[in-house]
Amino acid sequence: MPTEIHQESDRAGAASDARRDDFDAWSAVATVELDRFCKHCGYNLRTQVVRRQPVTDILMARCPECAAFHAASESATASRPWLHRLTVLAAIVWMVFLVGVPVALTGLTIALNGVILDEFTTYRQVTTAGANPNTRVTRYVTVVRTDVQHHDAFIALLATCAAALACFGVMLAVVALPHWPRVAYIAAAVGMPILAASAFLIDVSFNQPQHFAWVSRYTLLLAAAQIVAATPFTLVGRPLARGMVCILLPTRLRNCLAYLWLVDGRTPPAAGGRLHN
Ligand SMILES: [Zn+2]
Question: What pLDDT does 276 receive?
């Protein structure tokens, strides 16, 4: 990018006088009409002359304070259209992700309920007399097992898994959807478990109604574990995320996540010593 090259050579200092003469020789086409700040020293470039670089045709302004060069227009570089396309693509991928995660979490919760139904039932062969006295009809039915080992530990493990899924979902919501009001996070924390439990129980009531009564107790237990575990994250989720950012990311990478502070009206942590020097 020509701006970078010019900036670098300006910082080198020795060649800067020649560059300045070059800049003054380029044809003036306009002046900077908006507040734009020198990326090098912060000087406001408004009213500075905009000139056309003769080789690249890029419109440039020069900081009178530190002589750093700037492209006068944000769209002046060839990479810009591709950057725009990548931005659109990234936004679409992001939206698919945001829709896909709650669907996956609901599906996994339904699967955990299915694990209980599978684990606590077994197939039994039942032979009954057919319509004709000489025939026998054999079929398989699912019956409740009476020999389940470690019942309580098994249920506790599944409830913990279900709760962890719900906590993850709420954490993702408070971090990735900062524009939501808090009531929306609570609705999600309560709504997803209810949706998953309802979907599972509707399936059971149609396909295995003989097990509905006992299996629904476990389904409600998992849903309650999810709601009780995940709802507090609507309050502590973002402070927790900020703590993780501070622990896991070096200061120069925190800038892109500063919104985690700003959205709650807080001041993001200082970006290291460089700004204060
Ligand atoms: Zn400057």
Answer: 39
Name the pLDDT band for 4 (thresholds 50, 70, 90).
Answer: very low
How far does the centroid of ligand 1 lie from the alpha carbon of residue 80, in Å? 23
- pLDDT tens-digit series, residues 140-181: 888 888 877 888 899 999 999 999 999 999 999 999 999 999
Q: What is the reported pTM?
A: 0.67
> Which pair of tokens denotes residue 66?
């530190």
Task: Provide the pairing of β-strand 69-71 with 121-129.
Answer: unpaired
Question: What's the CA-to-centroid distance between 16 and ligand 1, angstroms?
Answer: 13
Instruction: Identify which of 98, 91, 248, 109 has the alpha carbon closest to the alpha carbon of residue 174.
Output: 98
Measured CA to CA, the distance from residue 111 to residue 129 in angstroms comes to 37
CB 89 within 8 A of CB 58: no
**End-to-end C-alpha distance for the chain, whole angstroms:** 28
Neighbours of ion ligand 1 (CB under 5 A): 38, 40-41, 43, 63, 65-66, 68
